[in-house]
Every structure is written in structure tokens, then in C-alpha cells.
Design goal:
About 45% of the residues lie in helices and about 25% in strands. The chain is α+β, with helices and mostly antiparallel strands. It starts with a helix and ends with a helix. The relative contact order is 0.07.
Amino acid sequence: MRSGGLRPGVIGAGAIVVAALLVGIVGYTVYRQSFDAIRAERYAELRLIGKLKVDQIVDWRAERLADAHVGAGWTFTGAAVAGWLADPTDAARRADLVERFDLLRHPHPAPEAPQSQYVDVILAAPDGRLLLSLDPVATGLDAEARRLAAQVAASREPALGDFVRIESSGHVLVHVDVAAPVLDASGRPIAVLILRSDPSLHCYPLIQSWPTPSESAETLLVRRDGDSVLFLNVLRHRDDPALTIREPLSSIGLPGSAAVLGRVGEFEGTDYRGVAVLADLRPVPDSPWFLVAKVDDAEILAEAGDRGRMILLLGLLVVLLIGAAIGLGLSFRQSGFQGRLLRSERDHSSVAHRYERVLALARDPFLLEDASGQIVDANDAAVATYGYSREDLLRLHVFDLRAPETRAVLQQDWEAAASPDGVLFETVYVRKDGSTFPVEVSSRTIDIDGVPHRESFGRDVTDRKQAEEVLNKALAESREGARILDALMEHVPEGITIADAPDVRIRMVSRYGRELTGRSREVLEGIAVDEHAQRWDI
């Protein structure tokens, strides 16, 4: 008894363990898919932000080049510069040039005007010598500015320089120069206009801003510097000044190094902190710069972890529900509740499509049963006829609708429906309220998606049965009347003849009458009364 009692428990425990393993596998699969989806979403975000930042930097460069071109061609004129160069001691010409410098530096003199892009305006000789500057302590140009001036004078086209870090008067300054040639009447470059901007005022904020909330995301601008990658902007996670952090190009796992070496697009590696990151790498067109948009893997994992915990809780809930269902099924195993609890619901979409028009037009009750006799579909006429709701009707077996006295032949009727032409038979059905009624059933076997089913149309023949009953009763009464009349004619002590209209032929002669004539019933019945009277002289 004890081992027999333990067996269901062992089976239930094993089923719960198997369910837990399956839920765990499914949960892990869902978690991995969720993580991959989050990672794909974050990279798509990085890709869009990287493209946006590159476009903004390209626009920023184009605006600087346009300012230099306009300044050299319109604000300054070759004649004004040539006149001052011919006599540098001419205070009036110098003051005119300085005023033009101020106009370039502050194009909007109103107090509410936006902060100027430029911290200095410089006029340099084609060979890079400093001619004039708004900075009163400036005595010469740095090497990058001289190179840029010589390049512009030689090409006669505006050009944007690189990020430069210099020390001046005990201060460390970072600037970016844009230059354009100043041409005389013959088109010969006589000077170079240089507009110097502080990237911390406009360029760095543009690079460092991030459009969505993030604890680790940042954008880096880098370029190659010999065998190193140089970080051009101030970093989010380090306090070092701009242009002071370098990493060797041999650090192939570094996103900045990979970008400088030509890698484009999605990249996984470790950043300057040694932290694992997901990055998008892009070159900045027409420049030696590269842009890196990145976010920590830990931030992605944290988001995935939140979903993972939710999946874990849902998995535990599923396991608990499965355990409860198994326990409930085992507890009602003897009564058959488990079978009903675990009965699967079939998909009836194809059946509904196939019989939609038939069911809509049919006035007779229609039932569709599976191979076991379970009702799987019914029309509105069946619901109205049997008195069950549709939901209750679909829980019944066709056996449940048969009157008790007809259930013995159910199997016979069921098998007959499998014939090619189906079967037509009469039986008695019972309604939900217990009342019964006669039915003429047309049933046949059909195939739905490879699965055999039986369709049955049942017609209520109550009216027909009642009419037949009345007719049979009338016939019975007629036969009883004839029997009484026959007995009377056999015992009445009179000669009686009964004839039918319209030809007045004898239908019956009493026994006494036959004895009077001496003739049998066969001879007398059927002849006309006149003939009878003449023949027998009555």
C-alpha cells in the first residue's frame, strides 16, 4: 500500500522537475533573445547618434570655412590690406583693419547676441609670419598655424586646421584655426585671414552631448598621431585636458585605435578605462578625424538583467502553476478529472471556414463531432433546440443527447455514418430540461485537415410523429368499429343488408339474411342490390 501510494507522488515530482528544466531552457532562450534584441536596439541607437554627430561636425566645419571665405572676400579687400601692408605705420588703415577684425569676431554686437565662435582674428603673411592679431600679446604663430597659412596661400582655397594645444602666458589653450587667402587685384595672395575658435565653446559641447539618458554613453573624436591615437576632446570618464590622452595603436581592442586603423561600424572592445563597451566607428569626411560613439556593456547587461529577473519570476510562477496543476490532477485522478483537465482544445478555424455558409443558412440543428463522439461545433439552431449554451453544448458527448432508451443502438448508428453515403435514421434526443423529442438524423463522415469528423443534421419530427399517431389511432378506431359491426351482423336475428353508394353494391349481409337466401358471403357481397333482389326474387 505504501509503495503504491508513493508512486503518484514520485511521478508528480518527476513531472515538476521536467517542467522546471523545460521552463529554464525556454527562459534562458528568451533571455538570450531579449539580450540580443536589447544589444541590437542599443547599437542601432549608437549608429544613429554616430551619424548625427558626424553630420553635425561636418556642418560645423562647413560653417567655419564659409566664415573664412566670406571674411577674406568681402569683409577684407585686397586693396585695404595692400594699402596697410605698403605702410604698416598708417594708424588709420590699421584701425580700419582692426574694426573689420572685430566685425568678424562679433558679427552681432547686441548684448543678447550669441557667444562668438572665434576667440581671435589674425592676419598672416603667406609665409606664416604674424602681421596683425586681436590678441595684444601675440608675437607669432604656432607651427600648425604657419603650416595652414602656407597651405592656403599656395592653394588659394580656404582650409580648416587641426586641433592644436599651446601654452600662452602660463595658460594652456586648445584652438582650431580656419584660414582663407586675401587676394590682390591680380589674384595673387598677399595675406592669409585666420579665424581662431575655441572648441570648448561650441565644438566640444556638440560632440559630448547625448540625446538620450545614459549613465555611460559618450562620443569621442580621435585622430592618428604617429604610432598613437590622440583623443581630441575632453572625456566623460576622465578629467584630463583635451589632447593629452594617447593610446598606442597596438591596442587593437581599443575602439579609437580600431577607428584610426580603418575599422568602420559596429565594434566590441575595451575603452580607455579598460571597460568593455559596444561602439560605432565612423570617419569624419574631409578630415583626419574619427568619431567613436560608445556605451558600456554593463549598462546593456543591466537593462537585460531587469528583463532577465522578470523572466525568472515568470518562470518560477509557471513552474508553481504547473506543480499546482499536476497536484490537482493527481488528487482527482480516480474520478477522471485529470482527463477532463488535460483535454486539449482543438483548433476549429478550418471547420468554421468550411461550414460558415452552411451553418448560417441551416434551420435544422447541426452538430460536428470528433472521432470519439465529442461535440466540437454546433450552430445556433442546435443551441436553441437542445437548450444548452454553446459553451455547455461543446462540453457534451453525442451520447449525452440521446434518450436513454436509444443509447444501445448509438454505436450501430455511429458506424453506419462511416459508409460512403452516410446514414439516415430516426432516434430520440433529450433536451437540457429533460424533455425528449423525436429526431430524423442525417449523418456522414467528413475529413478536416486529415482528421475524421462526423457531421449530423437533426430534424425535429415531432409534428410528423403526432400526425402519424392521429392517423394510426383513427385507423385503429375504424378497425374496431368494423369488428363490432361484423359481430353484430353475425348474431342479429334479422335479415340485414348493408350497401355502399353510389352504385348501391352490397358490402355486408347478416348471417340470418344469408341463411334466408341460402347463399354464402362470397356470393352476396359485391353485387348490386337490384341484381340481388331480381336474382333471389326478394
